[in-house]
Structures are given as structure tokens and as C-alpha cells.
Amino acid sequence: MTPSRTLATAAAGLAAAATVAAPASATPGASPDGGLGRYYSQHLTWKKCTLGPDDEVGRSLDEAGARCADVTVPLDYARPDGRTIKIAISRLAASDRAHRIGAMVLNGGGPGPAIDMPPYMRGIMGEAGPRYDLIGMDPRSLGRSAPVDCGWPSATWIRSAGETRRSFQRSVRFARDLAARCARTNGAELPYVSTRNIARDMDVVRGALGERKISYNGASYGTYLGSVYATMFPGRLDRTVLDSSVDPATWGAGLLAGTEGANDRALAHWAGWAAARNAEYGLGGTRAEVLATVRGIVKAAARKPLEVGRYRVDDTVAPVVLFNGLDDDEDAARAVLAGSVRVLHKAAMDGSAEPTEDLDEALAFLTTGAESRYGSGQSAIICGDAAAPRDPEVYWHAVQENRKASPVFGPITRGINPCAFWAAPREPLTKVGGQVPALMVAATGDTRTIYPASEALHGLLRGSRMITLRDADVHAPYQRGYPNDCVTRQVNGYLLTGRLPARDLTCVPQG
């Protein structure tokens, strides 16, 4: 999940950071500081964030008053004297210096870049926002932090297995090609891209900022990163918000498995919304008719790729358009999906159609290499964390077993991806757990990190509290700025006071 880039008013420039003390001995290595002291005590040079005339992210950060710096870390933490890389961070300094609480690291999920987040999050955090130094950090392999770019023909690894065995074989070739491109172009770096190393990078950032503890605000993948950090570096988190959590037991190549039911329900809810607006979208006058239209689109794409402007949309891509449109149940998001489905339906019926601006952007993301770096870096982390079954037949059987129950989404959530062809991870997954008094947020209709995933992490983190947003098909409601005063008030109150609710809470939809 990537938050909106809406800017909030922010403070002016920052002074350079001071030299800080060496880290505690919990860091890896043989010597007391693991040989990492020079990284923790490095001097940060703060500078403007804009890198060039086309750098919209940097320009937005500069306009908000943020500054950027590069933090040097080892490529391989087992060899701190070896090759180094740069981790890019941004900092929007607390404007209420008299009541400054501390530094807060932000992560919006994906995995994706996060350097752009501080101005946006200041607007979400209400009265608490000006009291924090907000830190955006691009995880290694993404954005400005030693980016991995494998020259992919797509910005994402997600594909459906489609309607037929032939479609599945296309998805296998696609996944194998993506992995081969990465091994060919970034093979030396890939073994060191993992959430465990990103957590280590985050602790070096903490030290370089001169902070004994940091606060943390993470959504989606960011909840996994936050819980791994808390486990690897106990006692170094202050106020912690985890929004729409990953179940650590399911993290890895199969992270979408089990989400098909939530997506089917969200699709049905959207279909009811579209049916009530049949005069505008022409997709059917009842929920069942709209769902039949959707099913017809996928079947038509299996017979012959749909001609949508300059794109050819087959049955491995069309379901992903639907999947990507179901992470928010607000009217504006539902209208975007309805507009896209209307175009796809016209292409299926008439032989061709022109995309809306939103669908054009979505198909460019799915079927061109314009944002290859995003998908390359994301897969490097996911595949670098956990091994996946290597036999394509394992995925084919899983798709077939789930196809009847979920014909549109089962072939996505159970399908193959590049991790099946990736080198084995260098480290095992972190066994997440411990005393972590975090405030968690979870929506019961979340289609990405489903509600049981948040319940699972809640059970692993002793001392945590959870806010449940009932009857909402939305992913990352707090960071998204979803209109629910109950959620926003509780989270921002905690960030302001540091006091967790006495018990788990439930919020209901408003309006």
C-alpha cells in the first residue's frame, strides 16, 4: 500500500545530525559492537531531497521542509568491513520542538519506497504530527536505497494462472523469466536483500540519528518489518502503530493464499454498489448480473486477449485489474473500478475499447516495464525472506483445488511467482514475538492482509492492543486516511500520550 502524496504544511530546514554513540551489543558479530560501531556513529549530511528536474517526490519533500540523507550500511552484516550500500532517508523535523516526543520511522507497505511519507503522515497524525521527527526510509533494494532493477516487462510479479492449463503455463514462463532477469542483472546483491537486513538497516538509522529508541508507524508489509525489528532489537521501539498486519507464519511467496474469500466478498459488495448505478455503468441491474459480467470478461480474455487501447489484456492480467481495485470500499475507489470494468466489458463485447485514465495507468503498471524497479525490488525482499515450492505442479494443483470456490481470485492467490525460481534465502525467517506494546489496527473486510492475520500477530505480540474496524472492505485504514473518526482518534491519541487503550476496541463504520 502506498499512501497518497498529499502534502501537509511542515517546518523549515534541518540542521545536520550530531555524531552519536556506538550501538548496544545486540547487533550481530563477534566484537562487542559487532564491528558496526562506525556505522552507528556516522555523521549524517542533510541536504535537499530533489535529485533532478523530474523528481516529483524530492520536490514535494523539499516544499514540505524535509531534508534527506544517505546512511551507509554493510551489504552483508556478517562482513561489516566489506562492501557498503547507501540507505536513503528523509526527515521532517518536529515543528513543535518544545513538546518533541522523538523520531518516528514510517513504512507504508508494499514492500515499496517510503522516503516520500513524512509530509503525508504529518497530515494524518493530527495534533501528534508536529511533535515527531518523521523519518521516511526506502528499504534496501527499493527507491533510492541500492535499488534493484531487473529490467522487468512489468512493475509487478502478480499474475493470475488464468482459465486454462495453457494460461497457467504462460504464468509459469512469466515468473521464470522475471527471476532469471534478476539473477542475471543483480545476482551479487540479491542474497543480502531481506527483511532481517532491512531491520538491521533501520537500527543503524536509529543510531545515526542519535536516538536511544524510535517510534514506528507501519502498514501492511510495514507491520512485518516492524514486528521483525521489535523481535531482533527488543526494547528499542517506543510508540508503535501496526496497521493491517501480516501474519508472520504466512509471510513469503504464498502471502496472498487465503485472501480469496475476503476478495470474493469485497467483489460482491462492489457488485451491489455497481448494480445500483447500472444507468451509469451498464454492468447489470443486480449483484448477480454484475458478477456474471465480471466472470464473462475473464472468460472472454481467455479466448482472445482484450484490445484496450495499446494494451492486450489476457486472462492472466484481467483478474489482477479486479484484484487491485478491491482494497478500498469508498465511493471514489469503487467508481474507478466500475469505470475499468465498463471498459473491459466493452472490449469483450465490441472487440476493442479505449481505457480510462485510471485503467491506462493500471495496465501500464501491469504490462510494461515503466516501473520495473518497483516490482524487482519488492520481489527481492519477498523471495529473499522465505523459500517457495519449486515445482510448478504444486501451484497448478493448488489453483485447481481453489478454482471452484473462487474462480476469479483463486488463480491469483494460489498461482506461481518468481520466488519459485529464486536462490534459497541466506537466513531463516524471524520467529516473531515478545513483549511489544503496540497499537494495532485491523478492518474485518481487509482484502490484502486479512483480519485473521492481524489476530495472529496480535496473539504473538504480548502487551499489544487492537482496534477492529468492523464491516469495512479497506486495507490500511489509518495510513490511508479512511474516514473513520473512531480509528483516527484512538491512534492519534496514543501517539500523543503514549497510553495504550486498557483493552481491545471496536470501531463501526460512520456515515
From TrEMBL:
MF GO annotations: hydrolase activity
Signal peptide location: 1-26
AB hydrolase-1 domain ranges (all copies): 103-248
Annotated ranges, domain Peptidase S33 tripeptidyl aminopeptidase-like C-terminal: 417-507
Keyword Hydrolase among record annotations: yes
Record keyword Signal present: yes
PANTHER family: 2-SUCCINYL-6-HYDROXY-2,4-CYCLOHEXADIENE-1-CARBOXYLATE SYNTHASE, TRIPEPTIDYL AMINOPEPTIDASE
Entry's family note: Belongs to the peptidase S33 family.
This protein's name: Hydrolase
Species, as recorded: Actinomadura verrucosospora
